[in-house]
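FAQ

Q: What does a record look like?
A: Structure on top, sequence underneath. For example:
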């Protein structure tokens, strides 16, 4: 079992920044991949970014590339999502997920169906 707890969400003005955290506990095997997804009201959950615990390779959705940065601290078993230049379109509940599936292509982890565990989510609201 893996437990994931997100934090760091809040209300921010357009153009502002936030950093989300996802603390993992339990079975945190380094072969796992971590991902961030988001879900806006009335919309399906969508991929944001993903990172491998081992090696740190990353992949981003086009909508956040250049504005968001996913990083990890292996010693703290924590994954971060740094978000800059936020717009109202970034308003959503942000979820982190953990995947135990192995695939050489990091883009494979852009699908929420490959994740085994999810956190409870943290709300990000960007005002115009």
């Amino acid at each position: 079992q893996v437990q994931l707890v997100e934090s760091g969400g809040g209300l921010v003005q357009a153009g502002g920044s936030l950093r989300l955290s996802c603390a993992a506990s339990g079975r945190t095997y380094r072969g796992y991949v971590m991902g961030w997804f988001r879900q806006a009201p009335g919309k399906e959950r969508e991929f944001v970014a993903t990172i491998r615990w081992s090696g740190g390779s990353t992949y981003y959705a086009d909508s956040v590339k250049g504005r968001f940065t996913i990083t990890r601290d292996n010693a703290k078993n924590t994954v971060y999502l740094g978000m800059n230049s936020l717009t109202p379109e970034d308003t959503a509940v942000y979820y982190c997920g953990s995947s135990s599936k192995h695939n050489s292509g990091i883009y494979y982890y852009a699908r929420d169906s490959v994740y085994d565990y999810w956190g409870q989510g943290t709300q990000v609201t960007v005002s115009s």
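Q: Is there anything notable about this one?
A: The mean pLDDT is 94.
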